[in-house]
Structure formats: structure tokens, C-alpha cells
Amino acid sequence: MLKIQSLSVSYGSRRVLHKVSLDVQSGEVLALIGPNGAGKSTLIRAVSGVIPYTGQVHTNGDDLASLSTMQRARYIATVPQAVSLPPAYSVWETVLFGRTPHLGLLGQPSQNDEEIARQSLARVSAPPFAERRVGELSGGEQQRILLARALCQSTPILLLDEPTAHLDLQYQVGLLELVQELAHRDNLAVLVALHDLNLAAHYADRIALMVAGKIKAEGKPRDVLQADLIQEAYCLPVQVVQHPFLDLPLVLPAKE
């Protein structure tokens, strides 16, 4: 389980996150939603250890702030937003970097490490890319390689910051189905920031709505995706209706 307690982040005198507390259970997907500037990416970056924060982040009884970078990398893998991968490396080399926290003193990958890398590529439907240079890939293809690298890390916690941003609909669905499968089948704790409210409703077990650096609502998709909450958060009239085929809420712009 990932336990975030009273986490705050400031940039100079500007407070960006205000004592955010969240629990992400093993075996579930928790989606962060909220308007631009709400603090979703900042929360992901703080939990992953990229930026300083006050408060506490625990997993398995350990305070992540007390761990070394390598130790933390055995707990948490992150798929960041819009990152540029080194273009000269091959896809295979890039994905295999995910094994770095598990390598011995000599830093050489074993046959088992290479097999995990092959499985990670297969899970994002990317084996045909293995020998290509990262610089030859599209933004969407690079996003899939970032996920494969994170899977190769073999961590119990997975953080994803807008993982579907550069993907077409086919790969958005495929990636989120995979993330959901990883959580439910492999018992991972997954925290994912998403802009698309209906994707969040479809693939998340729980949703947390962030506004201005605070958690405004948290719970099952049906409990959080309420018209009044969404209208206030996004400053946009919406209607929330029953999905025509699934037992899910569907958020639509309100008709005039």
C-alpha cells in the first residue's frame, strides 16, 4: 500500500499542494482528476521523490524519504509526462535500464533481467520496436516504451502522469486495460493522473478530485463524478448520465 500523509509542496512562497492525504491499496487503480494546475503532476513528482515536500510517504512500513534513490526505485516506478528519452539508445537498452535497481555490484543484467525486459516489451505490444533507436519513435510509441521501462522495474507501486496524453484511442484503451490488469492481477498499487473523466470512470477503482492543490472528493467513480462537484472544479456546466452499456457514470457537457 502507498500511504500519503499531509503532503505539501511549495515553490518559493507559493504553496502548490496543501496537506494532501491519500491511500492507494495494493490491487487497485486510484485516478487523480482535476483541472489544469490542480497539482496532479506535482503530487506524482513528489511521491516519486523528484521534488522536495513536507509530510510523509510510506509503503510497507518504510518512510520513502529515509530511503536511498536506489532503494526507492525498488518500491516505485514512474511513467512521467512528456519526457524526452535519449534518442541514441535503442528501445531494448532503454527498457533494460528499468532493471538498474536490481543489478548486482558489476551492474550486468542477467538472463532473468533480460527475460523481464522482453516480457515488459511484449505487454505494451512493442517487441517490433526493440532494435529501433528511441529517436525514431513517435511520441505515442515513446510513451509505450516508458511504460515498458517502468514495468521492467518490477515494483509494487506504479505512478503514471497523464500516460495517455500522446496516444490514439486504440492505445489509450490498451494501455489503461493493461494498467488495470497489472493492479488487479499482480496486486500493484497504481496512482494515475488523468484528464479524461470518462476514462477515469472506466478504468479506476477509485477517483480523487484535486482542485487548487487540495483533495476535494475521493471515492468510487459514481461518488466523485457528480455534476455539482465537476461543475465547480472545472467551471463548466456538465451533465452526468448513466452509461448506456455499462454500470458507470458518463460525464457530458451540459446542453444549453
Would you give an account of this structure?
The chain has 256 residues and is of the alpha/beta class. Helix content is 32%, strand content 28%. The protein contains 9 helices and 12 strands. The strands form 3 sheets. It has a 6-stranded mixed beta sheet with strand order 6-7-8-3-9-10, sandwiched between helices. β4 and β5 form a beta hairpin. α4 crosses α5. The relative contact order is 0.17. The mean pLDDT is 91.
Itemize the secondary structure elements and their pairings.
Layout: E1 2-11, E2 14-24, E3 28-33, H1 40-47, E4 54-59, E5 62-63, H2 69-73, E6 76-79, H3 91-96, H4 111-123, H5 139-152, E7 157-161, H6 169-186, E8 189-193, H7 197-203, E9 206-211, E10 214-219, H8 221-224, H9 227-234, E11 238-242, E12 249-253
Parallel strand pairs: 3-8, 3-9, 6-7, 7-8
Antiparallel strand pairs: 1-2, 1-4, 4-5, 9-10, 11-12
Number of helices: 9
Order of helices and strands: EEEHEEHEHHHEHEHEEHHEE
The count of strands amounts to 12
The fraction of residues assigned to DSSP E strands is 25-35%
- Name the helicity range: 25-40%
Oligomer kind: single chain
Strand order of the largest sheet: 6-7-8-3-9-10
Main sheet?
6 strands, mixed
User: Which descriptor suits the 3D outline?
Assistant: globular
